[in-house]
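$ ./design --mode recover --in tokens.txt
reading tokens...
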């Protein structure tokens, strides 16, 4: 199934809401002393990507990019909206009207492939954080974060449905 034009604004709102749920989770983890994402590094990677460089030995050691924190946050929300568009395209308008938990959480869990197999290797952490001191812990954190994103997809869709009635 393809994303219908009339569903695009709702899908974008779902993505923003789900990403905000994930960010709330990350803020809670941070308050509890758990290391979380550094959006400046995501922005740094995107900045270098726009200049033609995909992979880095260690993104923290790469040259800083002007506005990298803003680029990181922008990328984070754009990716969240993109994943929501995939969910709405797969599930369709009927699911948006009557969302169920399983498709949203399943897609959220599936999105963990992006950091494990694209972002972490490109930023120097290796596939599935294999070059970090605690690969399993880092993978489980990524899985938890993306599962929360999946719950956010569901909750955002429910909230939008309540507001639009």
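writing sequence...
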């Amino acid at each position: 199934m393809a994303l219908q034009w009339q569903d695009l604004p709702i899908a974008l709102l779902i993505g923003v809401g789900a990403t905000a749920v994930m960010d709330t989770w990350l803020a809670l983890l941070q308050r509890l002393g758990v290391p979380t994402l550094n959006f400046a590094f995501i922005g740094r990677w995107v900045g270098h990507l726009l200049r033609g460089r995909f992979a880095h030995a260690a993104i923290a050691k790469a040259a800083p990019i002007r506005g990298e924190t803003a680029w990181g946050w922008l990328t984070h929300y754009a990716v969240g909206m993109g994943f929501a568009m995939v969910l709405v395209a797969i599930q369709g308008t009927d699911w948006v009207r009557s969302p169920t938990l399983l498709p949203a959480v399943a897609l959220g869990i599936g999105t963990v492939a992006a950091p494990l197999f694209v972002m972490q290797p490109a930023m120097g952490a290796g596939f599935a954080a294999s070059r970090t001191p605690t690969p399993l812990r880092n993978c489980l954190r990524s899985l938890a974060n993306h599962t929360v994103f999946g719950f956010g997809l569901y909750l955002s869709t429910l909230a939008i449905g309540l507001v639009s009635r």
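exit 0
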